[in-house]
Amino acid sequence: MTRKLLKTYNIQNLALLHLAISRPKPPPIVMVGVVQIAYWAAYLKALKVEEASRIAALVYVYPIFVFPMAYFFLGEALSIGDIFGDLLLVLSGILISFRPGTNICSLIRSPAIEFVFLFWIFYATYLCAQVILLTLSTNGIS
């Protein structure tokens, strides 16, 4: 399973690399690069203000933003399993980053939550834009 995921990820990156090298850089491709830089900047800023273990747990909650974006912009349908999995991701992210002896509000008041939120938004935008660009490039539209 992991090997298949890595192959898929590498194929997508190679396809985007080919798209970036073989053609002039139209504005959408440049914007995807800018969004990628923005989500990395937000991630690194969050790491500066909070423990890495808490940030790592919160970062992987990004599907809660990808699902709605994929539904509205890509026309993908969400199954009940997707919604249930989304809820489990949120719950697990909260439980992992929760410190014993503190209340749940300390997570919400964390100085890093703003940067993690920006990471979620930018990363979800990047993933949806990547799918759109790959679809356009395979259909021969530049």
Quick recap of the structure?
The protein has 142 residues and is mainly α. The protein is 78% helix and 0% strand.
Task: Describe the protein's architecture and organization.
Helix content is 78%, strand content 0%. It has 142 residues and is mostly helical. The protein has helices spanning 2-22, 27-49, 52-59, 63-73, 80-97, 105-108, 113-138. The chain has one domain. Residues 1-8 have low confidence and may be disordered. The chain has 7 helices and no strands.
Architecture blueprint of SSEs:
Elements: H1 2-22, H2 27-49, H3 52-59, H4 63-73, H5 80-97, H6 105-108, H7 113-138
Relevant terms:
disordered N terminus, 142 residues, mainly alpha, flat, 7 helices
